[in-house]
Amino acid sequence: MSIPAINSVVASAGAGKTTRIVNDIAAEVTVRDPESIVATTFTVKAADELIERSRARLFQAGLPDKAARLLGARFGTINAICGQIVAENAIGLGRSPRAEVIPEAGVGRVFAVSADAAIERHAPVLNDLGDAMGFFEPKRAPDVERSDWRTTVRRLIELARSNGLDAEALERSADRSVESFLALLPAPSADGGDHLDADLDAAVMAALAVVPAEFSATAKSSVALLRQVNAGNRRGERLSWPDWARLSKVSCAKKDGPTLIDAMAAVCRAASRHTEHPRLREHCTQFIRTIFTCAAEALSAFQAWKSERGLLDFIDQEALALDVLRDPVMAARLGERIGRVFVDEFQDSSPLQIAIFTAIADLVDASTWVGDPKQAIYGFRNADSMLTQAAFAGVASLSSGSQDVLATSYRSREGIIRFANAAFAPALAAMGLDPAEHAFAETARSDQGFDHSPLSVWWLEGKLDLQYAALAAAIRDAIAPDSGWQVDDRRGGLRPLGAADVAILCRSRADIAKAAAALGELGVHVAVEREGLARTPHVELVMAAFRWVADPTDRLALAELARFLADDPESDAWLAAAAADDQTAALRAAVPIVPQLEALRETILSLTPADLVDAVMVLPEITRRIETWGDVATRFDDLEALRGFARGYEESCASAGAPATPSGLVLALGAEEPQRPRSLRDDAVKVMTYHGAKGLEWPCVILTGLNKVPKPRLFEPVAEADGAIDWRDPLANRWIRYWPWPYASQSKDVRLDEAALASPLGQEAADRARDEEARLLYVGVTRARDHLVFAPPAKGDLKWLEVLDGAQPGHVTLPRAEANPVQAGQDVFPARTATLTSDDTPVVRPIAGPFVRVSRPPSTRPPLNRRPSAADEGEAYAVVEKIQLGPRLALTGTPDMTRLGEAVHAIIAADRTAMPHPDRLARAQAILERWQVHQVAAQDVLGASDRLSAHLGSRWPDGRLHRETPVSARLGDQLVNGRIDLLVEHGTGLAVIDHKAFPGSRDSWEARAAGYGPQLALYAEALDKARPGSPCELYIHMPIVGALLRVTRAATNA
Q1: Of 80, 117, 802, 960, which sits 20 to 30 A from 747 (CA to CA)?
Q2: Rg of the Cα atoms in the chain
Q3: 321-328, long-range: CB within 8 Å, 24+ apart, which pairs?
Q4: Residue 1017 assigned ligand-binding role
């Protein structure tokens, strides 16, 4: 296989990779058409920055024409580029050029709808097996995710699509997964499952028989477990595999006596044979096969559902773009239009995206892949770090392109750069990266003016909550104006450290919540995405009002409103109302805004769900009540996030071709559990995960979680590849491995964990985990500009730092004493060291005064858009001229006057008297049939049209007729949009004629015509904006009764 010219640029963190790409693009457009440039990034923001900086560079170089033409180049995310390729080749792909792209946030909802039937077919089996494996046990630790087989199905599908696998390949992956999983288990017991069950039951009963009346605290939990299991056995319940594992660990104290000790040991022996149990093999085998089948069927249903509706998601765009690139004809056409490709953040590419980049490289003169293998994190955007690393290495050794390394840091101080070089050298070598090539050569930053070294170590004493309390106190002190902590002000000087300069990086969402809570207790503002938007009281209040407006029978919503809107927050009057004989009446009486909500309900048919959220949110009583709860800015940020969620729900419904309904929004809000937004304050400490920090930087970065043990990805879906990785064919030999964990929260000493880790696949997973943890730590270290703070617990081993060890353990050590430095191998780095403590003493914070809004009556504003057909100015109009055009049209039967009016209107609007009469008659008849109107003759309607045309011709011989004329004008603060049935432009002015199919008696004509006066007057007012000063006469044409009536304001009487 020939290797195209691919230039690789290894850009370490903060080394100016965007500047390098901008310079290369500016150079390229001097030798080729700017429109032939392709540049991909991973975010829209990055793409916008790249093109604007590139154009700015061309303007600076005196090339404005090139800068303007660069707007025709292909800059964007990989999905945007693939979307362009697919749209341009849609016909060749057998698709419509106009495809609806599902927003990323809406894919989950579309999948839920499309794959629901496929998933529910397998739910009984998977739920039953999941129950046996403890999937539905309560969470036993806040940072432990409960197993959810539906999430596993989604993950299997995501991995399959990102690795180019279809439904059949998923079924093959099931076979491989079963085979490799069963190899982890010992041979099944020859005694059979029933015998093992009986032995354990007998051992449990025997142990319970010798439990003394009083036993040790050590035995307490074990005795409770034995009693629970025995009760379940007596009821004939199945013993779950987590309980088998727990029973294998029961124990008691020596003082409980040898009899109980021996009985407990017998239970352990009987339960520890769980890995030999034939039923465990059967359950796990059936679970693997069923979940892969479920995923395959759900994937097929998802793809079929989108195909039927002309929908695409981002991965569809990538897969179809690869189809284009693999088709010789379509690829050749694309190659004629592009000549140079730049790929940013290449290390975060999925296998499917690498296949695209490789295929594009075959079409163009040269490609440049820019990235940093040291920051390739597994699973980030479904990336495969081993594959991207192999691609970088392969390009460097095989391609005819150039290889370059950006080794100057423009971000961090010298001490941080030197520490990163020394600390990560062994880990980089272990993962196959040359430390000399990937080290920073220098930094463009100056340490001049800084009084302290950039490294600090804060040892945190006590339990986890106290550790975060101590950390929060240290941050509060550091951001105090006189703390002595200084940062670069980006203008050549220094300034005091502020809250917005600080970022705390955590390993889990549970850690984020603890850090944010500790800072909040001290009154330090925090910018963090938190869970539970729908569970905040202000959102609950708005949604309770929303639900009751949408459904007046929802008494729960009414009770919630009564609770939230009570004058006394401690009052239980709402509860008494909910328990009253007439609940609805009592609750209505307790809700002061019932009239406003009922008035809103009258307009609900004209409101979308998002409109209704807005309408409820701006009710004065709702807003005032939320303001009295304090922290108004944060609460309003949350409400803005709710508005965004509602709009996103409508967009996803539109993409899916499904109706957006109030009940659907309520269900979506409950199912998706959107997060609360980060604070928008400019004085807030940032708290986020290490993964979320990728691509960001701060003056001061605090690293937590240094005691976390790296965990290989053994019991979750993982993409595997057979044989050596070939970056030139990245989708070859790939499959998905999934081993279920049948023991729920029992994660140690169950044999399966040890067997999995000792297996060849387990060893590979352990190596990948170690490399990934090293890269993740590198991401954390290199986020810091001025200060890097290590914040480990004072007790315990720092397991995460062990991933940096080379041949010798303890490569990186943190000092305990103030005078000692941080050590990385043979290198030492000065550091400020402190031991931080806290206690359980409650923090007393001043109570913020409630927000008080000056009371004033709510103002009533007219709607933005005015429809002339709904105009009602309240002024009287009168008929000042009545013209009989001809006889009344004959109507037979009892016609539907709405449809009759639409049909007659359409005939008159489409009729042209200059056409041959047979053609006119045929057209009129077709219109009547289309409207299913048979009570009037087409010939009679044409007669009415002729009579109107004749009158207009005699009245205004020079008049020009404009049928169905659109009108749009701004009148004051409102917009008028409508369509004039017939506009006559004549020498002395204008005439507006509106057709009304009114069949009433002669004495009712004038009253009916005068009622339409406001509508016609609004047309006239809009026309005056276009033709100021032109007189405008207003007419109502009644073709059914053969009359033309001129109307005007009664006061004018002219």
Answers
A1: 802
A2: 37
A3: 321/81, 321/82, 321/85, 321/86, 321/356, 322/164, 322/352, 322/355, 322/356, 322/359, 323/93, 324/85, 324/86, 324/89, 324/92, 324/93, 325/85, 325/356, 325/359, 325/360, 325/363, 326/359, 327/92
A4: no
Identify any residues that bridge with 865 across adjacent strands, giving them in sequence order.
975
Could you give the percent of the chain with pLDDT greater than 70? 96
pLDDT recorded at residue 1053? 46
Sequence-ordered strand ranges (E) for 257-338: 311-312
Distances (CA, A) of 879 to 304, 829, 948, 1013, 1046: 61, 95, 18, 9, 6
Q: How far is Cα of residue 210 from the mean position of the Cα atoms in its chain?
A: 57
Kindly state the tokens that stand for 797.
């081993």
Residue 844 pLDDT level (bands cut at 50, 70, 90): low
**Phi first, then psi: what are they for 822, rounded to 5°?**
-75, 135
CA 805 to chain CA centroid, nearest Å: 37
Tell me: is residue 16 an annotated ligand-binding position: yes
Is 1051 labelled a binding residue?
no
Burial 134-169 (b: 16+ CB within 10 A, else e): bbebeeeeeeeeebebbebbbbbbbbbbbbbbebeb
Which of 1037, 1018, 1028 minimizes the C-alpha distance to 978?
A: 1018
Count other Cβ atoms within 10 Å, centred on residue 356. 25
In this prediction the pTM is: 0.79
Strands (E), 323-376: 340-343, 366-371
DSSP state of 848: P
Torsion of CA 40, 41, 42, 48, to 10 degrees: -120
Nearest in space to 941 (alpha carbons), one of 963, 914, 920: 920
- For 720, phi then psi, to 5°, come to -115, 160
Torsion angle of C-alpha atoms 421, 424, 428, 430, degrees rounded to 10: 140
Six-digit token string for 875: 């002024």
pLDDT per position as a tens digit, 463-475: 999 999 999 999 9
Long-range pairs for 532-535 at CB < 8 Å and ≥24 separation?
532/673, 532/675, 532/676, 533/638, 533/641, 533/642, 533/645, 533/673, 533/674, 533/675, 533/676, 534/669, 534/670, 534/673, 534/674
- Backbone dihedral angles phi then psi of residue 463, each to the nearest 5 degrees: -70, 175
Q: Amino acid identity of 488? A: D
Using alpha carbons, select from 692, 741, 734 the residue that is nearest to residue 712. Answer: 741
Q: DSSP letter at 676?
A: B
Q: How far apart are CA 707 and CA 460, in angstroms?
A: 12
Distance (Å, whole) CA 507 – CA 791: 13
User: Rounded to the nearest 5 degrees, what angle is found at the Cα of 1032, between the Cα atoms of 1026 and 1037?
Assistant: 120
Q: Would you state the structure tokens that stand for residue 746, as one six-digit string?
A: 């029992």
pLDDT value of position 872: 62
Question: Is 339 in contact with 367 (CB distance < 8 Å)?
Answer: no
Question: Is 15 marked as binding a ligand?
Answer: yes
Q: What is the pLDDT of residues 437-486, one digit of tens each?
A: 899 999 998 888 898 899 999 999 999 999 999 999 999 999 999 898 99
Q: Distance (Å, rounded) from C-alpha 687 to C-alpha 856?
A: 40
Can you read off the two tokens belonging to residue 929?
């049939």
Query: Is 11 one of the annotated binding-site residues?
Result: yes
Of residues 368, 364, 447, the one with CA closest to residue 406: 368
Residue 841 assigned as binding residue: no
What three-state secondary structure class fits 859?
coil
Flag whether 13 is marked binding. Answer: yes
Residue 584 structure tokens: 């609805």
Range of lowest pLDDT (102-106, 336-340, 896-900): 102-106
- What the block records as the tokens of 399 is 């391609």
